[in-house]
Structure formats: C-alpha cells, structure tokens
Amino acid sequence: MSSEYTVTETLDVKGQSCPMPIVKTKQAIDDLEAGDVLEVVATDSGSMSDIQGWADGTGGVELLEQEEADDLYTHYVKKTE
Fold first, then answer.
1. What gap in Å lies between CA 31 and CA 45, rounded to an integer?
2. Treating both helix axes as pointing N-terminal to C-terminal, what angle do 20-30 and 47-56 enclose, rounded to 10 degrees?
3. CA 20-23-27 angle, 5° bins
4. Is 4 exposed, middle or buried (CB count within 10 Å of its CB: 0-12, 13-18, 19+)?
5. For residues 13 and 20, is the Cβ–Cβ distance under 8 A?
6. Is 81 a catalytic residue?
7. Which residues contact 71 (CB under 8 A, 6 or more apart)?
8. Per-residue CA distances from 43 to 33, 57, 78 (Å)
9. Distance in angstroms (rounded) separating the CA atoms of residues 20 and 34
10. Going by DSSP bridges, is the β-strand pair 9-13/61-69 parallel, antiparallel, or unpaired?
C-alpha cells in the first residue's frame, strides 16, 4: 500500500461475487466523508475490472490503487466530494 494516503475504513467482501463488491463499495463510500479512503478486500478476480469501471464512471470517487496477492484483490478508493 502506498504511504501517500491513510485508510479510513476497510470493507471485506471476500467470498462475494459480482455485483456485490460494487454494491457494498458504493454503500460504504456513501457513508464516508470527502478525503476518506476505503480499502476494499475481495476474492473475486472480476472485482479488478469492476471496481475500476465503477470508479471511472462515478463522480466523487477516485481509484487510488489496486493490488493482487495470494488470491486477494485489494482496492483503495478515495471519496473526493
């Protein structure tokens, strides 16, 4: 994880498949304040492209980073407004 940002909240969506990681990510982002960073931990490999696409098409959020290790997919999403 980058040292450029601090994780505000972690969302565990391991074992869930599309569309639940996106649905849960949106719900969690809605509860955060501008500037907060949400860490999303998933086991669904499709979450890499799904969360990227969601972030690209959603105002007020920015996908900071994605990591893949040991069948875990971790996404860092910042609420920008």
1. 25
2. 40
3. 135
4. exposed
5. yes
6. no
7. 43
8. 26, 23, 20
9. 23
10. unpaired
Pull the structure tokens for residue 76.
């860092």
The C-alpha atoms of residue 20 and residue 79 are separated, in whole angstroms, by 19
* pLDDT digit string, tens, across residues 17-72: 989 999 999 999 999 999 999 999 999 999 999 999 999 999 999 999 999 999 99
One of 1, 7, 14, 18 is an active-site residue; which one?
18
Q: Which residue from 50, 49, 43 is spatially nearest to 72, judged by alpha carbons?
A: 43
pTM over 0.90: yes
Peptide bond into 19 cis (omega under 30): yes
Element (H, E) at 49: helix 47-56
Nearest to 43 by CA among 10, 68, 76, 77: 68
